[in-house]
Amino acid sequence: MAATSDLYLRQIPIGPMANFVYLIGSRRTRECVIVDPAWNIDALLEIAAEDDMRVTGALVTHYHPDHCGGQMMGFRVPGGVAELIGKVDARIHVHKIEADGLKKVTGVSEGDLVRHESGDTLELGDVRIELIHTPGHTPGSLCFLVEQRLVAGDTLFVNGCGRVDLPGGSPEQMYETLTGTLARLTDDVILCPGHDYGPTPESTMGEQRRTNHYMRIRSLDDWLRLMRH
Asked: Are 58 and 81 within 8 A, CB to CB?
C-alpha cells in the first residue's frame, strides 16, 4: 500500500474457528467499517479506538454466525452485528438476497440494514469499497474490493474455497463465481480471506490461479465431480 493512500486496513485474527475480521476505513476522516464482526465486539472496538478510528458501519460477507454472530442450526456465536449496533451508531451493509437470513440468524431488524446490489459502492473519505456478489457458499455472499485488495469472506481462501454443501450453497454458482466473476480481477489483487486456512494469511489472485486447485478446474462437469466427493 502506498504511503500516500488514504486506506486504513487491518486484518484481525479472532475466535476459535480461525476467522479473520477486517477494519477498513479512511485515515483522513478516521472512520472505518468492520467486515464480519463476531466473537468479541469489545476487542474489535478497542483495536479501532487504539488506532484512533471511529466505527461507523459493518459489512457482512454472509449470514453464517461465525461471521456475524447469532445462532443457526444449533450453533451459536457471541458478539456479532446485533451487539455492535447496540454499542455504536452503525448500519449493517449486506446483499439484498442475504438480508433475510441475516435477520433470522442475528435478530437485527430491517431498519438496521442497508440492502445492496452487486456493484454498489461505499465511500469513506477517499476510500471506495466495491461490493461484488459472489454466490456459491451462500446465495447472497459478497466480496469487497478496495484498492487492489479483495476481502473475500468464505468465497475464496488461500489455496481453498468455501463449502457448497451447507443450506443455500450451490456448486454451480461457486464455479461461476471463481471462473467468471473473480477471474476478471488482475493478478496483482491481494486476496484477504475470511479464515486463516492456508499457508499464509494473504496471497495474490495470480498466485491463487497458479496454486489453488479450486481455481484450476477446467469444466463445470469436472467441478461437480470434485464437489460431490
From this structure: yes
pLDDT at 58 over 70: yes
Contact yes or no for 4/127 (Cβ under 8 A)? no
Q: What is the CATH number of the domain that holds 154?
A: 3.60.15.10
Residue 122 lies inside a defined structural domain of this protein = yes
Q: Answer whether 137's CB lies under 8 Å from 150's CB.
A: no
- SS3 of residue 24 by DSSP: strand
CA 186 from chain centre, in angstroms, equals 19
For 60-105, the pLDDT digits (tens) are 999 999 999 999 988 999 999 999 999 999 999 999 999 999 999 9
Specify the number of domains making up the chain: 1
Kindly state the cell numbers that stand for 226: 470434485
pTM of this prediction? Answer: 0.96
Q: Are 21 and 35 in contact (CB under 8 A)?
A: yes
Cα–Cα dist 94/105, whole Å:
13
